[in-house]
Amino acid sequence: MTSTETLADTAPAASRGAPAAVFGKGFVQDSWYFVALSRDVAPASLKRHELLGEPVLIGRTRAGQVYAMRDICPHRAAPLSAGRLVEKPGEGETIECCYHGWRFRPDGVCAAIPSLVEDQAYEPERIRVRSYPVRESQGMVFVWVASDPRNPIEPDHGPPVFPGVVGGEARLVEAMDFEAHIDHAVVGLMDPAHGPYVHQQWWWRSEHSMHEKAKAFEPRELGFAMVRHAPSSNSRAYKLLGGAPATEISFRLPGYRWEHIQVGKKQVLALTCLTPRSDDRTTITQIFWSDHWVFGLARPFLRMGVVAFLKQDGGMVNLQNEGLRYDPALIWIDDADRQAKWYQQLKREWGRSRAEGRAFQNPIKPATLRWKS
């Protein structure tokens, strides 16, 4: 598939997703969201997550199957994640509610209601908890959120596949919750002009090293990319990699940004996953893979840098929230804010394509953007 082709020959007619046209409101649906690393979902585990304002149980059977379901028992609303994974004759592995022992299969179908007696003709299998399609890919767990929970469709595309997942398991992982809608988190992440003011470290850059930049961009599947280029001369951290690094920075709906760096035959992938928990809370997870020797020696220092960046961005989000409480009109300028505009265009087109039952058409056109940072 080329970057300008549609995602699929035909979009599913059953999809009823509505355009999320208002910035800072609504979510991209009929999409895959990152929820956890595979290594963090242990056999027989039950863990509560919040995703797009809904409680979601992520678990793994002892046989290794990962599943996702709404974390509310339909009987008396107790969290299913507070229960346990059990195995009864003829039922297989089920999730047992901690309140009255109702048991549910990983697909959400009720397998048993212990309080029933033999002559009570009640059919437990008629009771269902909402289940979510879930996939494991490249050591990560993704959950598909359908636009219509009453008439959910099967995913018509797979979760994203990222380049540069090398060197075994992820070498470095850090996560932080931002008190922001995912839209604000996304545009803050792709904003090229805030770095010299928010991230002032001696090993990175400062406002005194600002200079003009020109970067070529092109459309990609469900997003766009800053095409491969040599890192800017005022980005000192790249010098640790030695050689002549070349980097490509990509964004994809609903909230993935990654930087793929090549230094000869060695690679570094810096992936950021944005997971919307609610209207005003987004988890930012930064994951690094690499087969470059520098990760073995400098990982403690890199971790300190990643944590510092997240805390600085989080602090700025908190300051921004002081202004956003008054619902001000926001000014978007070219070229520094063009990526933020592209994100909004992608969101609108995705919502429209799903609502109209047609294939997604990427609205992004190749362009060269110029700014100072």
From TrEMBL:
This is Phenylpropionate dioxygenase-like ring-hydroxylating dioxygenase large terminal subunit. Keywords: 2Fe-2S, Dioxygenase, Iron, Iron-sulfur, Metal-binding, Oxidoreductase. InterPro entries: Cholesterol_7-desaturase, Rieske_2Fe-2S, Rieske_2Fe-2S_sf. PANTHER family: 3-KETOSTEROID-9-ALPHA-MONOOXYGENASE, OXYGENASE COMPONENT, IRON-SULFUR DOMAIN CONTAINING PROTEIN. Pfam families: Rieske (PF00355). Residues 32-143 form the Rieske domain. SUPFAM superfamilies: Bet v1-like, ISP domain. GO terms for molecular function: 2 iron, 2 sulfur cluster binding; dioxygenase activity; metal ion binding.
